[in-house]
Write a structure and sequence with these properties.
The structure is a single chain. This protein is α+β, with helices and mostly antiparallel strands. The strands form five sheets. The protein has a six-stranded antiparallel β-barrel with strand order 2-5-9-8-7-10. The chain has a six-stranded mixed beta sheet with strand order 18-19-20-21-23-22, sandwiched between helices. Helix 4 packs across helix 5. The two termini are 56 Å apart.
Length: 496
């Protein structure tokens, strides 16, 4: 996967790098982490530049400073999917305007809305705002500190003016998918407490229509057995189809019920308490299912540490989880067809193939060793004698660096005093290794200097210790001349 693809998964869909790396490895893929980090740096640089460029812009000031602060948006989205409303404000290019036309990117503020505004880790609703004169697609919804709901999006057709009466309608499929993830997050938190311990506390969460993310306190990685127990506990409570009850009460009453509150969060005098059967009870301002069974199931994608003492779980629910399993089933079917085996026989077939590969590899290694042994006999016969030392130089066919090192060790044991310069061409790459006996080192021979000379003539480079050095090269055609140069240099080092 390219760095750009990994960055998009991170930036657009919330995939952390660790999770992407894990999924890629499971599917036999690699990721370009250097390029990913480059994309991250670009984003941070762009964000800093954007921040500098917006200093003094309308969004750095209060756009509604000259308006009536008591005018807020009435939220009816807990019980209604649509609402008739009046357009109070239109924001275009960081300024309040009287109207907007087709293709304008604007923010609409209404006196009433069914759109949930992003908060508490839940993303804002999507949907549409329209009347007979225009249609506006809502891509996100947030809110100001004083309660004005900001519907961000684009005018698809027509034009809109202040004061018009409109129909605001949420995307119910998107809302329901988000609710599946949010309600399931409550079940997940309770399962974590029950299985890992009461030290588990929420440190953050993020839920949208695609997935859920839950951060919590825990001191170590979660074992596979624990992950299975957690997923099973959540799925059992989904299948139990527990009723989800939402109640508003004073914070004092809520605390008496034992409802879980987010540590450090500020709550008003009245809070919403969301209860799933007799399993979980939490303070929560988000939107939820009526029964846990509507979540369908949970598929935990994985967990990882994000800071000291804080872990993160990511998961899918509902149709997204079903799609995940359908994709896995398709991949299994493709593997089965490639192996010419039934799905339940795949592992048996893979094990058999692994044994075949192991056997063939052993056979090839034996053949290579025998071939190398014959080559070493030839090299010993052609050795150059310099006083009490032998200089052995030549090539052994088709050996990778590991095999060449083994051959070098074998040859070194057969030569008590001298210099060995071995090479091999493997997969179009020149492998080189030089060894020098201890007494030859004392006489002036130096493996590192010899390898530097020989590798340099083959388009490579290297160095090493006086007694052993290895390197690679690119030009196999230059090997004969390089080895000859190595022999001449070794002779000179040994005083010939």
């Amino acid at each position: 996967l390219s760095g750009e693809q990994v960055f998009r998964l991170h930036d657009t869909y919330g995939f952390p790098l660790d999770l992407t790396r894990e999924i890629a490895l499971e599917n036999g893929l690699t990721i370009d982490e250097d390029s990913f980090r480059s994309e991250m740096k670009k984003q941070k640089d762009a964000a800093r530049e954007a921040h500098r460029s917006k200093q003094g812009s309308a969004w750095d000031k209060d756009l509604f400073a000259g308006t009536d602060k008591s005018v807020t948006t009435q939220f009816v989205g807990y019980s209604e999917n649509r609402a008739e409303a009046t357009v109070l404000y239109i924001v275009k290019e960081d300024a309040l305007v009287d109207g907007a036309q087709q293709d304008d990117d604007v923010v609409l503020v209404l006196d009433k809305t069914p759109f949930y505004a992003e908060s508490g880790g839940q993303t804002g609703d999507k949907g549409s705002i329209s009347n007979a004169q225009f249609r506006f697609v809502v891509e996100d919804c947030t809110k100001t500190a004083d309660g004005k709901y900001l519907h961000s999006g684009r005018v698809l057709s027509g034009g809109i003016l202040l004061g018009e009466t409109v129909q605001a309608v949420i995307d119910t499929d998107n809302r329901k998918a988000t609710a599946r993830n949010h309600t399931t997050t409550h079940l997940l938190q309770q399962a974590l407490k029950n299985i890992l311990g009461d030290h588990v506390h929420q440190k953050g969460s993020y839920v949208n229509a695609e997935r859920l993310r839950f951060d919590f306190t825990h001191f170590s990685a979660i074992s596979e057995e624990q992950m299975t127990q957690i997923a099973d506990a959540v799925n059992r409570n989904i299948l139990a189809n527990l009723p989800v009850l939402v109640e508003e009460m004073s914070i004092e009453e809520a605390q008496k019920t034992g409802a879980t509150a987010l540590f450090g969060e500020k709550y008003g005098s009245t809070v919403r308490v969301v209860t799933a059967g007799d399993y979980s009870k939490e303070f929560c301002g988000g939107t939820h299912l009526l029964h846990t069974g509507e979540a369908g199931l949970i598929k935990i994608l994985g967990e990882n540490g994000i800071s000291s003492g804080v872990r993160r779980i990511e998961a899918l629910t509902g149709l997204n989880a079903i799609s995940y399993y359908a994709e896995k089933e398709l991949r299994l079917q493709e593997v089965s067809e490639a192996l010419k085996a039934q799905p339940d026989e795949v592992m048996k077939k893979i094990t058999a193939l692994q044994e075949d590969v192991k056997s063939l590899k052993k056979t090839l290694e034996t053949a290579a060793q025998e071939k190398a042994a014959g080559g070493m006999d030839r090299l010993l016969a052609d050795a150059v004698q310099v006083g009490d030392y032998q200089i052995i130089a030549g090539s052994l066919a088709d050996l990778d660096m590991q095999a060449l090192r083994t051959a070098s060790d074998t040859l070194k044991n057969r030569v008590s005093s001298g210099v060995c310069i071995l090479s091999s061409v493997f997969e179009d790459k020149v492998n080189l290794i030089v060894t020098v006996s201890g007494d030859a080192v004392k006489a002036g021979a130096h493996a590192g200097n010899l390898i530097k000379l020989v590798a340099g003539k083959c388009g490579g480079g290297g160095g090493g210790r006086p007694d052993m050095a290895q390197a690679g090269g690119k030009d196999a055609s230059a090997l004969p001349g390089a080895l000859a140069a190595g022999i001449a240099a070794a002779k000179e080092m040994l005083g010939a």
